[in-house]
Every structure is written in structure tokens, then in C-alpha cells.
Amino acid sequence: MIVITAPTGNIGRHLLHRLLESAPAAGEELRVIVRDPARLPAAAHGCVEVITGSHGDAAVVDRAFEGADAVFWLVPPDASLAPHDTYTGFTGPAAKAFAAHGVGHVVGVSALGRGTPVADRAGLVTATLALDDFIAGTGVAYRALANPSFFENLLEEADSIRERGIFTDVVDADRKAPLVATADIAAVAAGLLLDRSWTGTDSVPVLGPQDLSPNDVARILTEQLGRPVRYERQPFDELRTTLVGYGLHEAFVQGIVDMKRAKDAGLDAGIARTADTASPTSFAQWCAESLKPAVLS
């Protein structure tokens, strides 16, 4: 039995799709924890067991992890809380349920940065790495998917790209870093969940096929969209003011700002890309399939 948390999110929906295709042949049953079952794809109906509720709720995870061999664990960021409460605090009930039900394997969504000089002051990433240590401390076999920023983050910029030909961030325009498609993260997670021959604790980097700077991204966007697109660097103080204005918890805002500052200082540059750490989807391919329709709609 494989339990999938956040099955309708950016990563979870791709993972669910993959497991619906491959789990039956492997003799695996699937169970999902979801707040709104109506958001599940039609293909899941009748093929997965559904536990309705939040996977931060002790009663929900107690039901969901009964008889489970493996769990895909993803914490939904909660901008109304401080980072530690968002990640480790949310996972507390699940950690107890892992032990109570003898869950053997957990695959979690994490971040790059462990071992870099800025890892201890990287805001949300620092909290995420602490979560990895917390889960590993439960005694389960654990694999942390160490990810850079997602291609999908740019979907939040679709309106600005359409209307002004601009996307923004706070990192240096020439700062090259890995970027990854969430579908590629899901593919790695599916492989780990289906082949549970691994033991102990480790991280699994998922780096995409190449490092890109914001200027590289602007060039590819211009090529793919057939219209000029440029990158505009936003000051860190302006980012903080904007996020506070949205009503986010101030500690969470500081976590975002510290994470962005650490990325600009090379947080994601600590792992070499190899055949094992690269993933296949290029930014140009993702742009053509996902961002272009959103911008041109």
C-alpha cells in the first residue's frame, strides 16, 4: 500500500497519474489523503482509496497509514505560520503515525542546499532541511527529494509576461542555477515508491537538464512566445513589503526573503549534475507545453 499526500498539487497530481498507470502491474494498492475528493482526476475514481481531510490531522494520518508500506510526504506551505510550524509542526502527527503503523519507507519533497555555507540561514529551505532530519529521526527509511526552484513558479508571472513582457525575481540576472519540472520530480518519487529496496536515509537531487540564469530564461521565453520578454530584478526590501502587504505571517515572509537571498548566494549550486541527478524536461519544452498556453490564453 502506497499513501500519497497532496495528490492534487503540482507534484502530487503527476505522481498520482504515474502510479495509476504503473502500480496495478506492480501489485500495489494506492491510498490518497485529500481535502476535496472532487478535485481528484476521473481516472482515480474507483482505483484509489480516499481518506478525506488534512494530512496534518492526527486522526486522518492514523487512518491513512494503517497497513501502509510507503508514504509520499509533501507539506503544503502555510503562509499564516512561522516556517518551523509550517513544516516540522505540521508533520508531528504523521511522525507518530509512521511509528505506530510501522511504515517502512517515506519519500519527501525537500530542497537543495544541505552542506552549503548558507544552508543554516536559508529561511524556508533551512526549515525544510530540519524537517528531513525530523522524519529521518523516526526510524523510517527516508529519501528526501532535493529540488531547486520549479519551472511552474513562472506560471505566477503569466499575467505580467502577457501584459508587460516582464517577469521578476530578486536574484542576479546572470546567476545560473538548476531549475526543474514538477513532473520530473514526480517521476523520481514514483520510482522510489515502487522499488523499495533502499534503506537508511539519503537525499536524491533532481536538477533538471541544465542550469539557467534569469537572462537565459528571458531568452528562451522570447523564443518560445515569439515576443520580447525581459527579466526585472526586484529589491529584497520591495519583495518583503509586497508579501507583508498580502497578509502573510511576518516570520514566513522573512523565510521567503532569506531563502531567496541564499539562492542568490549559491544555495542551489552545491550538487554536480550527473546522469543520476539530471532530469529530462527542458525549460523550452515545459514553456511550450505549459507556460505558452497560459500566457496566450
Shape: globular
Secondary-structure arrangement, i.e. CATH architecture of one domain: 3-Layer(aba) Sandwich
Alpha-carbon Rg, integer: 19 Å
Superfamily (CATH H level) name of one domain: NAD(P)-binding Rossmann-like Domain
> The CATH topology of one domain is what?
Rossmann fold
Counting DSSP E segments of at least 2 residues, the number of strands comes to: 12
Largest sheet composition = 7 strands, parallel
Structural class: alpha/beta
Helix content: 40-55%
SSE order, as H and E? EHEEHEHEHEEHEEHEEHEHHH
**Low-pLDDT stretches:** none
Mean pLDDT: 96
Strand order of the largest sheet: 3-2-1-4-5-6-10
Q: Determine and state the CATH class of one domain.
A: Alpha Beta
Strand content: 15-25%
- Give the N-to-C terminal Cα separation: 40 Å
- Helix count? 10
Q: How would you summarize what this structure contains?
A:
By secondary structure, the protein is α/β, with parallel strands linked by helices. The protein is built from ten helices and twelve strands. The chain has a domain at 2-151 and 179-206: 3-Layer(aba) Sandwich (Rossmann fold).
Question: What attributes characterize this protein structure?
Answer:
297 residues; seven-stranded parallel beta sheet; alpha/beta; 12 strands; 10 helices; Rossmann fold
